[in-house]
Design brief:
globular; binds glutamic acid; binds zinc ion; alpha/beta; 3-stranded antiparallel β-sheet; 5-stranded parallel β-sheet; Rossmann fold
């Protein structure tokens, strides 16, 4: 009998706040209820923004919340070779092209999307650019997935329509059940996403897909701000022959003004609440998970 595997995959780029606690507790409770496994993965792929102190904070906060995870913990910074191997395969299949658009645009496209900062669809300026282009020697560049080419390589619209993922939470618009992909929406609405950078072996999208498969994660529990990323992950699963977990996108924990708690907002950081004398039970109550 195979039991479920849940995971919590924070980036050590800031303190954990109530939203993270909610995600972690939901995943942990679900794993325990099903007598399944719970994994912690440190998404420290952005080496420029990741800090050991934040990683330590993750361990401290989760332990304080009463969460137990398996060790050793997988850290994405240890997985660069695995990501690079897939990038090489994609390159050989002609699915990638180098993009020399601004560093800032590319940096934003590398990390996990966040609510309110919808990434603009890349206009395809560099599409078709050759890897032999001498301009590439001078600096950093991104590797973009040619989305149309990728979808055509999978079999085109008819095949794409049959690709789906199962949503057991609620998407932002209460989507539930079998969510099918749409080739037009992927090309027009998502576009040529960044999969890696010259000096950075994988973007959020690629690393998360490869690691969920590597760790045999069966259930992905995460905030609904990542719902829009899931069709992209489904495409990457199809392109790399990885299995598709079941997804549960949960509501976001908001502050009194209805704003999503950002990582820089220390007010609801777990460590702050703890220092102020809150108990783990109080935190459960604050996110609506008591009883
Ligand atoms: N590491 C991502 C973040 O902190 C979440 C990854 C995921 O759950 O897919 O935003
Ligand atoms: Zn470009």
């Amino acid at each position: 009998m195979s039991s479920i595997i849940e995971r919590f995959a924070p980036s050590p780029t800031g303190p954990l706040h109530l939203g993270h606690a909610y995600s972690a507790l939901l995943a942990y409770d679900a794993a325990r209820k099903a007598k399944g496994r719970f994994l912690l993965r440190i998404e420290d792929i952005d080496t420029g923004r990741s800090r050991p102190a934040y990683e330590q904070g993750i361990y401290d906060d989760l332990a304080w919340l009463g969460i137990k995870w398996e060790t050793p913990v997988l850290r994405q910074s240890e997985r660069f070779e695995a990501y690079a191997a897939v990038i090489d395969q994609f390159k050989e299949r002609g699915l990638l092209y180098p993009c020399t658009c601004t560093r800032k645009q590319i940096a934003a496209a590398m990390s996990a999307p966040q609510e309110g900062v919808a990434a603009a669809v890349y206009p395809g300026t560099c599409r078709g650019r050759d890897f032999g282009d001498p301009a590439l020697e001078r600096g950093d560049y991104a590797l973009r997935l040619d989305m149309r080419k990728a979808l055509v390589s999978l079999g085109g619209a008819g095949v794409i329509r049959k690709l789906h993922f199962k949503e057991v939470g609620k998407g932002p618009n209460r989507e539930k059940g079998k969510i099918a992909l749409d080739m037009g929406a992927l090309i027009e609405g998502v576009g040529d996403i960044v999969l890696a950078r010259k000096d950075s072996p994988a973007s959020y999208h690629l690393s998360v897909v490869l690691d969920d498969a590597f760790q045999q994660v069966s259930h992905v529990t995460r905030g609904e701000d990542l719902f829009e990323a899931t069709p992209i992950h489904r495409v990457l699963q199809a392109l790399t022959g990885r299995p598709t977990p079941i997804y549960r996108h949960h509501k976001l924990i908001r502050d009194g003004e209805g704003k999503r708690l950002a990582k820089r907002d220390d007010a609801r950081a777990i460590a702050t609440l703890r220092d102020e004398g809150a108990t783990p039970g109080d935190v459960r109550e604050m996110v609506g998970l008591s009883g």
